């Protein structure tokens, strides 16, 4: 296999990863709170071949001397884009839209770990510890955690919810009485590029100690007051269809060019092998 075929095949593998990411963005365009991912590319190792030994014979040359032989391109970074999505009014008391780009709702994972999401569509589910009570959960059943790190326990007979200016969650009973069920505390992630996908709109943080990073330099707990949370509304995904389709077409065209290079290289090698 010649150099051009190797270069093209390496680049095709990286372009396929970009197409997979674009496809994932488009598939989740309607998912509440979803944040798109974006690739950036860089060159692989390149070699400079100085094949012009007599520079005096290169009079009038505008391009640099020599030939730069590359090894293709690679994905340098997959960035999580945290631009604010549009806010849609729902008039549902358990819908919350985050208006701060760095904040997340802390929820409990299946194994007891803390996950983070910007999907503010919550529901009621029976409390496993007390069938007469309910807890607030995400659409996937993950329990929303209060400021004390415990689930919100909703008393029986609750007909509505109210988020106060101080970030306290109140359950409104059938008789009109309001009961404080806990503080809505948010997690502000100051280094969102450390977040790892945990399925859907869920994220998790890696082992910060293993990365020699202090937790207080990455995550900060803040009260979910009116300045950061809008009740009865949801944040839509920040996927831009026009940009994603344009990126997809560009990636497909680049993939096609590199595939053609592999095909032409194979044809040239076939011609050489058939020489008598």
Automatic annotation (TrEMBL):
Record-annotated Flagellar basal-body/hook protein C-terminal domain positions: 230-275
InterPro entries: Flag_bb_rod_N, Flagellar_FlgE/F/G, Flg_bb/hook_C_dom, FlgE/F/G-like, LlgE_F_G-like_D1
Domain annotation Flagellar hook protein FlgE/F/G-like D1: ranges: 103-169
Top-level taxonomic group: Bacteria
Pfam families per UniProt: Flg_bb_rod (PF00460), Flg_bbr_C (PF06429), LlgE_F_G_D1 (PF22692)
Family matches, as SUPFAM superfamilies: Flagellar hook protein flgE (SSF117143)
UniProt keywords, alphabetically: Bacterial flagellum, Cell projection, Cilium, Flagellum
Cellular location(s): Bacterial flagellum basal body
Similarity comment: Belongs to the flagella basal body rod proteins family.
Name the record gives this protein: Flagellar hook-basal body protein
Organism expressing this protein natively: Thalassorhabdus alkalitolerans
């Amino acid at each position: 296999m010649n150099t051009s075929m190797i270069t093209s095949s390496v680049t095709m593998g990286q372009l396929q990863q970009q197409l997979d990411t674009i496809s994932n963005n488009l598939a989740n365009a309607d998912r509440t709170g979803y944040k798109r991912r974006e690739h950036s590319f860089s060159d692989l190792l390149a070699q400079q071949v100085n094949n012009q030994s007599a520079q005096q014979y290169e009079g009038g040359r505008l391009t640099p001397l020599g030939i730069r032989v590359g090894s293709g391109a690679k994905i340098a970074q997959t960035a999580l884009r945290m631009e604010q999505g549009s806010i849609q009014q729902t008039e549902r008391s358990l819908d919350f839209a985050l208006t701060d780009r760095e904040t997340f709702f802390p929820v409990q994972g299946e194994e007891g770990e803390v996950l983070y999401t910007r999907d503010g569509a919550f529901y009621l589910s029976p409390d496993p510890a007390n069938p007469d009570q309910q807890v607030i959960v995400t659409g996937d059943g993950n329990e929303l955690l209060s400021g004390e790190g415990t689930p919100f326990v909703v008393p029986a007979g609750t007909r509505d919810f109210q988020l106060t200016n101080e970030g306290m969650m109140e359950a409104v009973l059938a008789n009109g009485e309001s009961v404080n069920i806990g503080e809505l505390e948010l997690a502000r992630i100051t280094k969102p590029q450390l977040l790892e996908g945990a399925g859907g709109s869920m994220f998790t943080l890696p082992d910060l100690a293993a990365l020699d990073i202090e937790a207080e330099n990455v995550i900060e707990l803040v009260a979910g007051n009116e300045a950061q949370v809008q009740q009865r509304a949801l944040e839509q995904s920040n996927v831009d269809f026009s940009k994603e389709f344009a990126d997809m077409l560009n990636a497909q065209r680049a993939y096609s060019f590199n595939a053609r290079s592999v095909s032409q290289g194979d044809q040239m090698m076939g011609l050489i092998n058939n020489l008598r």
